[in-house]
Amino acid sequence: MKTRSSSTSAFSLIELFIVVLLIAVMAAFALSTPSTIVKGSYLSQAEHLLTDQFKFARQEAMTRNHHVEVRLIRYGDPETPGESAGDPSSGYYRAIQLFEVLENGSIVQLDKAQLLPQGIIISPDEHSTLLTHADLQPPLRATRTSSDDHPGADPALPRGVDWNYEYVAFRFHPEGGTNLNSTNGVSWCATLRRLVDRPNGSKPPDNFVTLQLDPVAGTVRLFRPSL
Fold first, then answer.
1. Does the pLDDT value for residue 148 go beyond 70?
2. With CB atoms counted within 10 Å of each terminal CB, which end of the chain scores lower, N or C?
3. What is the dihedral of CA 64, 65, 67, 73, to 10 degrees?
4. CA distance 157 to 131
């Protein structure tokens, strides 16, 4: 009786090394991709939040026939190393809140402060003229009491910040425009970026979103680089 011969094959050491290397590359890609997606998602969430708040402020000013004040808020994040909840100068602009301005000058909050996603800030430099331009009033420190110059107590912020924050503000008119200077040629804008992605001099980081506000019409335009 004849027996059928059989041959066996096995991976060589080089082939085995190539297989292991491919698996390692695929695993690294699988781990890094969700992280990149999450980071981009946070920036997109911040973009939508700020855009929606600007549009809502304009809409409410026109609907209520009152000025609506937009406050961009700086505070120290207690969960970020090097920052302190008790010292706003240690932190960044990372929240927005809207207020209705009544005929008697009192200010009533329209909603609670909206915080940007963790790790996202409004860039505090020349890329955000809504924070830094010389035409604006200097940042104001929040106060829990009313005064003639500051009618209506400011609301406390969550996460242990309380009244330890500062803000810059501008207003939408009932006609839909803003009180921002429209004759000085300034491009009024706010640029969102990740805290860890710092600008290189006058050049913004690779991943950012800029919201440009028309001071006369009160409309918002977006600029985001292609990635």
1. no
2. N
3. 20
4. 20
* Structural domain harbouring 46: 16-118+133-179
Which token pair is 139? 């940042």
Cα–Cα distance between 196 and 152 in angstroms, integer?
36
Cβ atoms of residues 119 and 196 within 8 Å: yes
Q: Is residue 124 part of a domain?
A: no
The answer to whether 132 and 126 have CB atoms below 8 angstroms apart is yes
Burial class (CB in 10 A: 0-12, 13-18, 19+), 139: middle
pTM: 0.80
pLDDT in tens, 82-136: 999 999 999 999 999 999 999 988 899 999 999 999 999 999 999 999 999 999 9
In a domain, 185, yes or no: no
Query: Which of 110, 201, 99 shows the shortest CA–CA distance to 150?
Result: 99
> Can you state the percent helix, strand and coil of the chain, rounding each to 5?
25, 25, 50
How far is residue 158 CA from its own chain's centroid?
17
Place of tokens 């406050």: 71
